[in-house]
């Protein structure tokens, strides 16, 4: 574009009727420069967005791993408590059978 503009400027000096063509070509060259600048800005924004999305993805993956670890720990703890209560119930039944009494009934509150 710039080369064509300079050639047209030289031709304009020789022929005055090329002035309108030179103005049109200069306007087109300006539009091209604006579009190139816009494309460069978009490329910079895209790079920043890609970086931010990669960081966000990494953070979510770390959070998911943490939640899975926590969930596994809770499942293990629930299993241990289940085993504990099963052993307590078995012991209570054994003690009741030794003393020849049925399992104790829960206390009922008196109605007032």
Q: How would you describe this structure to a colleague?
A:
The structure is a single chain. This protein has about 110 residues and is mainly α. It has one domain. The protein contains 2 helices and no strands. The longest helix is centred in the middle third of the chain and has 80 residues.
Average pLDDT score: 84
Helix segment count?
2
Distance between the termini: 100 Å
Please give the radius of gyration in angstroms. 42 Å
Strand content: under 5%
Shape by Cα distribution: rod-shaped
pLDDT under 50 segments (min length 5)? none
- Helix-strand pattern, N to C? HH
Quick tags:
112 residues, mainly alpha, rod-shaped
Quick summary:
The protein is mainly alpha-helical and 112 residues long. The protein has helices at 2-14, 19-98.
List the helices and strands and how they pair.
Elements: H1 2-14, H2 19-98
């Amino acid at each position: 574009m710039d080369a064509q503009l300079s050639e047209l400027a030289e031709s304009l000096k020789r022929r005055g009727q090329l002035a309108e063509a030179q103005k049109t070509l200069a306007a087109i060259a300006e539009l091209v420069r604006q579009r190139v600048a816009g494309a460069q800005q978009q490329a910079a924004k895209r790079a920043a967005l890609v970086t931010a999305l990669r960081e966000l993805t990494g953070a979510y993956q770390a959070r998911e791993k943490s939640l899975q670890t926590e969930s596994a720990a809770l499942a293990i703890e629930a299993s241990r408590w289940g085993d504990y209560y099963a052993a307590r119930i078995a012991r209570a039944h054994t003690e009741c059978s030794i003393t020849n009494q049925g399992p104790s009934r829960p206390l009922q509150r008196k109605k007032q």
